[in-house]
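Hi, here's the filled form for the chain we discussed.

Project: internal
Contact: R.S.
Residues: 423
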Amino acid sequence: MLAKTILQSLAAAATVLIGIDASPLFKLGARDLSFDYNNQKVYGVNLGGWLVLEPWITPSLFDQWADSKTAVDEYTYTQTLGKDEASRRLNNHWNTFITQDDFNAIKRAGLNHVRIPIGYWALAPLAGDPFVQGQLPFLDKAIDWARSAGLKVMLDLHGAPGSQNGFDNSGRLGAINWQQGNNVESTVNAIRALAQRYASQTDVVTSIELLNEPLGPVLDMSRVKQFYYDGWGTVRDSNGDTVVVIHDAFQDITNFWNGFMNVQSGVNHVMLDTHQYQIFDQGQVSQSPSQHVRSACNLGPKIASTDKWTVVGEWTGAQTDCAKWLNGLGKGARYDGTFPGSSYVGSCDGKYSGTVAGLSGDDKRNIRSFIEAQLDAYQRHTGWFFWTWKNEGAPEWHMKDLLANGLFPQPLSDRQYPNQCGY
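And the returned structure, exactly as it came back:
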């Protein structure tokens, strides 16, 4: 529920002009955040597929069900294996997939943030769920690793009871039942557990995202907004300064969200998260490389015109949906026409499964150009988090591999394709 006393609003937000970097939206006071979101840019990466499973990121964990499709998400993975075997396999995965070395490499690449997805079942499990627990000691380690490396952390509640979007990355593929029964209240309980656990570690944990990708078009958005206020108050009960991140729920970031939970509304330290992919419908995946670049560039002024801190919390180098199981275990791609109802655009050779080094020369040039355009656009406001740091064989999405092969700029300001956006 909302905190008993809403903190006094900070200095009024300065007008944000389209086409220029946003002016300070909050005036930092005596209890400063450990990262200045007004004057420093967020350069971040997601640790996807680690503490919340996604079959396309780690297909080796799901390969035995490639034909039967018995396990297609973390819910059915744990349900099929049973708690003991699921716990054994998951602990091995948690122990090995991300380590201190990854945090050190992220820092060396010039990044300053990581976004870490976590499911409600790790924080406030529900009776009858097949999910297993044990993620939190690894999340604790991640905070220590980030501190050692000099990185800040955004904690992201990636899966809610009943599923907020029906995607496999919510923990359970299928029906969207988040707003049924006590599920929203249970989600707030998970947020409370997360906020309380890390309330004293704001030197590293600077932000908490209340919920990843609620599917606004099929949800009651008035209830989503109320949940955001309740979640903000719940975080404030534990800490007065932690940034509270709200996802745009696939609604327009200015027309829908400007005026909501900005400084004038009496809340402090709220950040909007928008995810920008250009591959999940036939029209987008049919764009030419230059059209993808132009679409990214066009987002820059839009992002700059929001009235609160705004990050692009997920984006990719991919101009195709070719990666194995990206659209779900056993499902094909729109790009090569193997996804139901799609039509052929081009070949997925080298992009279905492989390495960055194995991509064609054209693919390498197109990915580098696209990444540069997105960097230019997304840092028009608060910054960005690339999706994702590593995976088992999806080269367009593998930041570590993209860095190693010169497709992700080093330093981040380096441009082989300068001034693509004209700003």
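Let me know if anything looks off before we file it.
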